[in-house]
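Ex. 9. Protein: KCTD2 protein.
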Amino acid sequence: PLGAARSPAASKWVRLNVGGTYFVSTRQTLCREPKSFLCRLCCQDGPELGSDKDETGAYLIDRDPTYFGPILNYLRHGKLIINKELAEEGVLEEAEFYNIASLVRLVKERIRDNENRTSQGPVKHVYRVLQCQEEELTQMVSTMSDGWKFEQLISIGSSYNYGNEDQAEFLCVVSRELNNSTNGIVKEPSEKAKVRHLLRCIV
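Predicted structure tokens for KCTD2 protein:
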């Protein structure tokens, strides 16, 4: 009597032994993708699959259990959730093995998006510190080109004396995005600006 009461529920649930790790799910979940390996294994149970079972009655699947979690969760709720410590390529490999076409597309899109973000990389800047006199300051700032932007102006007092007039000296800090340059080679600031000295480069 007890066994008869449990049999309907037992037939609804499927036990999987994936690489030595046990997973339990419903036939409805595993058959969400009709053409998938899991659907053929658990719902059709065709002899052509050679579906061996272990001593507990679980279907034996010789695959890495680490990447099976995202596969099973996708079948449960239709969302791709991958823990940070898991490689997306590993999930893609399993999705292709289990023949879950919609998941294969999702993982490939995720990998492509990540590659695009990585190729762009974080924005890096190159800084130049330029020394100029007060009378050259306006012209220097107004004629900067090639992607250089004004960052900061630092007064360093008077270093030169022409006749009776002191000429105030300034350090002008400019920057540009490193990605704007070809192959990482940064061009010098525009020569239109009358710059006295190129003191240093801060990367």
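Check your answer against this statement. The first strand starts at residue 13 and ends at 18.
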